[in-house]
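Dear Dr. L.,

I hope this message finds you well. Following up on our conversation about the binding site, I have prepared a predicted three-dimensional model of the protein together with heme C. For your records, I am including the exact sequence and ligand specification that went into the calculation, followed by the structure tokens. Please feel free to forward this to your student if that is useful.
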Amino acid sequence: MRGRRLIWVAAVIGLLLVVAVTLPVFSTLQPDYYRRYPALVLRMDHWEISTHSRISCGECHVEPGVGGFLSFAARSIPAFYSQMVNGPDDTNLLQAPGRDACQSCHTSYRSVAPSGDLLIPHRAHVEVLDMECVACHEDLVHSLNARGFNRPEMETCLEQCHDGDAASNECADCHTRKQIPESHESDQWLTVHGTRAEAEDCGACHDWTPSYCAECHEERPASHIGNWKTDHAPHARIRGDGCLVCHGGQEFCDDCH
Ligand code: HEC
Ligand code: HEC
Ligand code: HEC
Ligand code: HEC
Ligand code: HEC
Ligand code: HEC
Ligand code: HEC
Ligand code: HEC
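The resulting structure of the complex is given below.
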């Protein structure tokens, strides 16, 4: 009789232990669990409208394989009980995903973006340079880039590596369609480009290098030769306001006139 009761007690304790261990791990694998953390609300909202909204947190945030699962479990059990006792605080148990998680779904290495405009040799970056996916895809799920997409931004490339020194920043090395436009091929381009500035969208290409126009306009143009100080009259009559692009305001002219 006594032996049988002991077995029962042991079985119940064993069952409680199993529940005590599996409940936290199970709960923390449910996306809704993270709703209780105020610090994660924004991340959750973005996730719900991202391409990956059907992919649960764990598929990206738990490393694939037994080791990754056990390490997640070891973090999730104390976090679960601490949250019950102390309430949800800023701490969370998810870390930025490693590339093994991404590669459990994305196996091919793209080298051209779907738009066709962008050359992005994934194998070279991931395997040769040993980069993590999130180094570029940081806006994939929980935020949008400055242009409102879940895509990598040009700034990321240009600021982190492609500065023209560590790696090339030539437009044509990354873009197939944003090369020098036909208008620029004219011998007269440097003289006439200013007259086209209002008709065409120069900013689409040149806004990426903010001081591009201004820096050049600090240089003395070829037109200013000879006795320019007194002979500029005919140019000034034709160009009118064009002169002010480099010379700031009318005050420059008024100083002498
Ligand atoms: C498709 C993959 C993916 C899914 C699904 C995903 N995330 Fe993320 N998560 C990321 C990436 C990429 C980052 C790193 C960039 C960043 O900080 O936003 C990240 C970062 C985080 C971080 C910050 C980690 C740190 O310490 O840097 C938290 C917290 C987080 N995610 C929570 C969640 C929650 C909660 C869910 C489920 C509702 C979720 N994620 C679903 C990809 C994912
Ligand atoms: C569980 C599978 C799964 C995981 C894990 C996963 N993805 Fe995806 N990913 C998808 C699916 C499905 C799509 C949608 C494909 C489509 O609609 O054509 C997608 C789309 C994408 C896209 C294109 C859509 C977009 O929003 O720009 C990129 C880029 C991408 N994933 C990168 C990643 C990265 C980086 C990781 C790791 C942080 C990751 N994925 C993790 C399944 C996954
Ligand atoms: C060096 C930066 C960089 C790294 C590292 C990188 N990517 Fe990308 N990835 C890009 C760029 C840029 C695009 C093109 C985005 C676009 O279309 O505007 C892209 C596109 C993609 C796409 C296709 C998007 C679509 O709409 O179909 C997928 C999928 C993808 N990456 C997954 C990954 C995965 C998985 C990893 C890690 C193994 C990774 N990337 C690492 C920069 C990177
Ligand atoms: C190291 C690679 C790289 C270089 C060099 C580079 N770009 Fe980009 N560019 C990108 C990426 C990545 C994006 C983001 C793509 C997206 O939003 O789909 C982008 C986006 C753009 C866009 C806006 C997206 C669009 O389709 O309208 C323009 C315009 C652009 N680049 C022009 C240029 C010009 C001009 C140069 C040369 C001065 C240049 N890029 C050099 C990688 C590069
Ligand atoms: C390589 C140097 C250089 C760059 C880069 C440059 N400019 Fe100029 N810009 C000049 C020169 C030189 C003139 C004067 C031309 C002349 O008088 O022969 C000028 C003149 C102008 C004028 C006055 C036109 C007129 O009526 O005389 C405008 C407007 C102008 N540029 C706009 C722009 C814009 C917008 C950009 C950037 C997208 C730009 N420029 C980039 C060198 C440059
Ligand atoms: C499709 C992209 C694109 C557009 C749109 C564009 N440009 Fe450019 N532009 C370029 C590229 C690429 C270069 C060469 C960049 C370099 O050498 O760093 C360039 C160079 C220039 C130069 C310097 C030429 C030289 O001889 O040094 C001027 C000036 C210029 N652009 C003015 C303009 C003006 C003004 C507009 C609008 C009317 C315009 N661009 C529109 C891509 C563009
Ligand atoms: C591409 C920019 C640019 C444009 C366009 C431009 N200038 Fe200048 N200009 C300069 C620079 C740079 C100087 C030298 C300023 C200095 O040395 O402090 C200068 C100097 C001058 C001077 C001072 C005299 C001298 O020889 O130093 C006069 C006058 C002048 N410009 C008139 C004009 C007139 C008139 C026009 C229109 C026909 C014009 N500029 C268009 C850049 C420009
Ligand atoms: C360094 C002094 C100086 C500056 C700065 C200057 N000019 Fe002149 N400008 C002169 C002189 C000197 C003459 C020749 C006067 C003469 O021959 O009677 C002249 C003549 C002219 C003429 C023909 C005479 C007239 O009054 O119709 C025009 C037009 C003219 N300048 C426009 C400009 C414009 C536009 C600017 C500003 C972009 C400018 N100038 C800046 C000194 C200057």
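In brief: The CA atoms of residues 27 and 33 lie 6 Å apart.

With kind regards,
A. P.
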